[in-house]
Amino acid sequence: MKTVRNKISLLFLSIMLIVTSFSFINAKPAATNLNSDILTQLSITDENGNPLLSSLSQWDKFRINASFSIPNNMFSEGDVTTIKLPDRLKFANELSFPIKNHAGDIIAYAEIHSNTKTITLTYTNFVSSNSDVSGSFYFLTSVDSNVVKEDGTVPLELDIDGKLVFVCDIEYEIDVPKESEFDKSGWFDDGSNRIVRYALDISKSKKIYTNAIVKDSLSTTGAKINIDSIRI
User: Fold this and answer.
1) CA angle 35, 167, 71 (to 5 degrees)
2) Among residues 64, 132, 136, which one has the least CA distance to residue 100?
3) Euclidean distance between the first and final Cα of the chain, in Å?
4) Mean pLDDT for the chain?
5) For labeling, which of 42, 115, 117, 118 is most exposed (least CB within 10 Å)?
């Protein structure tokens, strides 16, 4: 439990670990045909695979969808393709998963590295022992609000084995929250499923509170507060 005792006099007190207030709007669910040896199409949709018809906030996840067609005799087992996100995006989670063709055969194993913002595809022997290999996959991303700090157009580009590929433009604007005296927000830190950061906004109207006591408790079993991370 966190307890803050203080007299708040004509000031705005924010207890925060990280503050972010951006949202995406008018994301274009465009698909781009690629002049690529592997990926034949890239597009973006919402987290559930539906067209993006409304704005995205920094809390929202969205899909980057990829279709692939591997030229015959191009890869052998163990060969790797690396896809890197632009700095303005981050992975929504860190995990490994198999990539399959339409028949369910495993073509490659994907591994997401949130610290380097890369996803690696390590191919199986299926690509060298079969011809006309194709399929599709997707991964979840979100805006990195530590990087994107102004309104404007954000070009979405992926670095695929050193080749920069344009996907689409995404429009975003600052999300102005509704005014309230007290707010609390929380989010996972940089794709981690274990570290959660919170921001507490107190007395946003600059109202005077004498001998105020602010309490916040953790309801998650086993969770602990990092006292050194608290900023006032």
Assistant:
1) 30
2) 136
3) 16
4) 76
5) 115
Residue 174's pLDDT is: 64
Amino acid at 26: N
Query: Which tokens belong to 44?
Result: 């973006």
- Token representation of residue 91: 């992975």
Whose CA is closest to 27, among 160, 159, 156, 191?
A: 156
126 by Cβ neighbours in 10 Å (0-12 / 13-18 / 19+) ranks as middle
Which residues are CB-contacts of 227 (< 8 A; sequence separation ≥ 6)? none
**3-class DSSP assignment, residue 92:** coil
Amino acid, single-letter form, for residue 204 = K
Distance separating alpha carbons of residues 225 and 4, to the nearest angstrom: 14
Q: Check if the beta carbon of residue 135 is closer than 8 Å to that of residue 117.
A: no
Q: Compute φ and ψ for 211, nearest 5 degrees.
A: 55, 45
d(C-alpha 183, C-alpha 37), whole Å: 49
Average pLDDT over residues 163-192: 72
Average pLDDT (217-223) is 74
Least Cα distance to 105 among 135, 68, 63 occurs for: 135
DSSP string, 201-225: EE-TT---EEEEEEEE---STT---
| Rama region for 87: left / alpha / beta (φ>0; ψ in -120 to 50; rest) | alpha
Question: Which residue in 170, 165, 132, 143 sits closest to 66, CA to CA?
Answer: 165
How many other C-beta atoms are found inside a 10 Å radius of the C-beta of residue 219? 5
Closest residue by Cα to residue 163 from 89, 90, 83: 83
Q: How far apart are CA 97 and CA 109, in angstroms?
A: 6
